[in-house]
Design goal:
about 675 residues, Phosphorylase Kinase, domain 1, Transferase(Phosphotransferase), domain 1, five-stranded mixed beta sheet, disordered C terminus, transmembrane, kinase, transmembrane helix, Ser/Thr_kinase_AS, ATP binding
């Protein structure tokens, strides 16, 4: 305990630090330790002996104690104790591990909605008391926010039981800028706290301090919400406008009504759709002489043959047809040129020069298609025409295959549906089903590589692209495995759930985190388990562990093995979901969100990660290849796994039984063939 803090040990409490002061009310708030219960508590110390404190300080304290003793809500700190001391009176409250809303910076609109819902739920509880309770001082300083963006309401010292008309001296307790107009005139209603909450939400979205709020209100208490139009949807602005109406009869009648309307509101404004129109290609053909007709026809056939062949190989027939026409036109202009038509100094006429340019352009693009292909996926023209068929649809995806197989395609459809469900259950909301993707599953390698060449990518596994003219595309090669599929689908889900973007290291970490899993189908249900080491990323990372610059890697976003191990660490520290919640709207300050979550600098986080890598992480088995087993396969696999590994029910993961256990859980066929797992060490 600091020498500057009062000594409350005789009352059973040891003060840790000052966390707040209210000089006007003569109140100091401390974080303290309950000596008997060995837990942290909050102590509000009211110092009534000071001459600067108003007479109503004691009344405020007694009123807060009286209210807290009759309330029992998980997001209102519980009353624990009170005691008299020479310096005044101490009020002991439950400690909530949360941050004051006034100290939190920018919040994503979805996070604002989560906070608003949680606070309205508290107001519903208060208004359901008999008689109803009006808080009268809702503002950012009196709201705490936890890692899940749940709101907690504190400081009920100004709270009032009942909504009858009260004297002016009692009613004006509150904070200017947040008090509804009727609080000054002597009539409180259930709608009074709604006004204060609405102003609080506006204050937070604008990034204002509580002292700045009064200047945004006119003489009647009205608030101009026009500046929020680019941040949130029109429906939310209309809802917020009703919350902050100066006349209480124009607001929602109570918190229940306001909450009901808010739940159905979409927060983000609709994406602006820009329509562009492509001018049709106008081709002017001059009459050709009869002796030129055959030459033109032959050149056209040559051009179209080359172009269509190229388009077939690259799964872009439309683009190949265009290139063929360009090539044929260029050849025609060249070979129909007659030397007698030479221009000044023997220079061929413009028609021949134009033919040379067209031929060179088409030839260059055919030989090196990267320029036009990479450009086409960002243009308004959809030229990709894969050789596959639509075989199934699921929640948020359409499945295509070049060689349909009803049984395998149905299994793949069920797997993708279940994977989305598991992501929603364990990690984050993968977004609306309307944010859909096309999954192109190629069972023939040449078709996959044709797609990869079209999009200018050199990868043997799979990839995600986002053309402007169609849904995002997940391109998969069957031999890539389910781990690669989940990796690419996770990138898609991140794009749906985080439309403003997400730090690059976090996207890579999330994608590679879900690529190693075991999924067993039992009793009509598929159970996923995540959190395993990668049989190759982990080995590769440990070989250079001592040479890693942790912070630089996060900034430069160039070490996927490191990012996967970080997400694995966060998962086993139960901090992965809180971090994903914090990353909404935090594309450029992911490291800051990581430091805020751990409440320590990135250097200390790195130390904890390195210690975990060298200790607890070694108990996690590696997964050679992710798989999902059928019920029949599950019966064969489970006994095999129990022979070498132990299922941890709490963490929902297989762990090594002892130091002699194998390092790697082999792939599905390796287990079914009873292959010796030591071969994969």
């Amino acid at each position: 305990m600091s020498a500057n803090l009062p000594n409350f040990t005789e009352y059973g409490y040891e003060l840790i630090k000052v966390i707040g002061r209210n000089r006007q009310g003569g109140r100091v708030t401390y974080l303290a330790k309950d000596i008997n219960r060995e837990c942290q508590v909050i102590i509000k110390h009211f110092q009534f002996i000071s001459e600067v404190n108003p007479w109503w300080g004691l009344e405020t304290l007694e009123q807060e104690i009286e209210l807290l003793q009759q309330l029992n809500h998980p997001r209102i700190p519980r009353y624990l104790n009170s005691f008299n001391c020479p310096q005044g009176i101490g009020l002991v409250l439950e400690y909530i591990e949360a941050e004051s809303l006034s100290k939190i910076g920018y919040l994503h609109p979805i996070q604002i909605k989560t906070i608003a819902i949680s606070l309205l739920e508290i107001l519903v509880y208060l208004q359901q008391q008999i008689p109803p309770i009006i808080h009268r001082d809702i503002k950012p300083d009196n709201i705490l926010i936890d890692d899940q963006f749940n709101g907690y309401l504190i400081d009920l010292g100004f709270g009032r039981v009942g909504i009858e008309e009260v004297s002016g001296s009692s009613t004006v307790k509150g904070t200017l800028g947040f008090m509804p107009p009727e609080q000054l005139s002597g009539k409180l209603t259930k709608a009074s706290d709604l006004y204060s909450l609405g102003v609080t939400l506006f204050c937070q979205m604008k990034g204002l301090s509580s002292t700045e709020m009064p200047k945004y209100l006119d003489h009647s208490g009205s608030l101009d919400l026009g500046s929020l139009e680019t941040q949130v949807s029109e429906s939310f602005i209309a809802w917020l406008s009703r919350m902050v109406q100066p006349n209480p009869s124009d607001r929602f009648s109570d918190a229940t009504t306001a909450l009901r309307d808010l739940l159905s509101i979409t927060m983000l404004p609709p994406a602006s759709v820009t329509k562009s129109f492509q001018k049709p290609l106008k081709t002017s053909l001059k009459p050709f002489l009869t002796n030129r007709g055959k030459t033109i026809g032959l050149c056209t056939i040559i051009g179209l043959t080359v172009g269509v062949s190229w388009g077939w190989i690259h799964q872009a027939l439309a683009l190949g047809l265009i290139l063929g026409l360009i090539l044929g036109s260029g050849l025609s202009l060249i070979f129909t040129y007659h030397r007698s038509y030479s221009g000044f100094l023997g220079i061929p006429p413009l028609s021949c020069l134009f033919g040379v340019i067209l031929t060179a352009l088409a030839t260059g693009l055919i030989i090196n298609p990267a320029l036009i292909i990479n450009g086409s996926q960002y243009s308004k023209v959809d030229l990709w025409n894969p050789r596959d068929y639509k075989v199934a649809e699921g929640t948020g995806f359409t499945l295509y295959s070049d060689h349909p197989n009803s049984q395998k395609d149905q299994q793949l459809q069920e797997f993708l549906n279940q994977f989305r469900t598991e992501v929603n259950r364990y990690l984050f909301d993968p977004g609306s089903p309307s944010c859909s993707t096309e999954v192109h599953f190629f069972r023939e390698d040449k078709n996959y590589y044709a797609a990869a060449n079209y999009f200018g990518l050199n990868t043997d596994y799979g990839f995600l692209v986002r053309p402007l003219v169609r849904s995002p595309l997940v391109i998969m090669r069957e031999d890539s495995g389910l781990g690669t599929l989940t990796h690419q689908m996770m990138y898609h889900y991140l794009g749906c759930s985080y439309p403003e973007g997400i730090p690059g290291w976090a996207a890579q970490g999330a994608g590679s985190f879900v690529e190693k899993f075991l999924a067993f189908e039992e009793e009509g249900k598929v159970n996923f388990s995540w959190g395993y080491r990668s049989n190759w990323r982990d080995v590769e990372l440990r070989q250079r562990l001592d040479n890693i610059d942790f912070k630089t890697a996060l900034i430069e976003r160039n070490d996927q093995s490191l990012f996967r191990s970080l997400f694995l660490f966060l998962h086993h520290q139960q901090k992965l979901v809180p971090l994903l919640n914090r990353l909404h709207g935090a594309k450029n300050d992911g490291i800051l969100q990581l430091e805020t979550l751990f409440k320590e600098p990135i250097e200390e986080i790195e130390k904890e990660w390195r210690e975990w890598m060298n200790t607890e992480a070694l108990n996690l088995p590696m997964v050679q290849a992710s798989f999902m087993s059928s019920p029949q396969e599950t019966k064969l696999i489970k006994p095999y796994l129990r022979k070498y590994w132990t299922w941890n029910q709490k963490k929902e993961i297989w762990l090594k039984q002892n130091i002699n256990s194998p390092d790697v859980i082999p792939y599905l066929q390796g287990i079914l063939q009873n292959r010796n797992p030591y071969l994969f060490k």
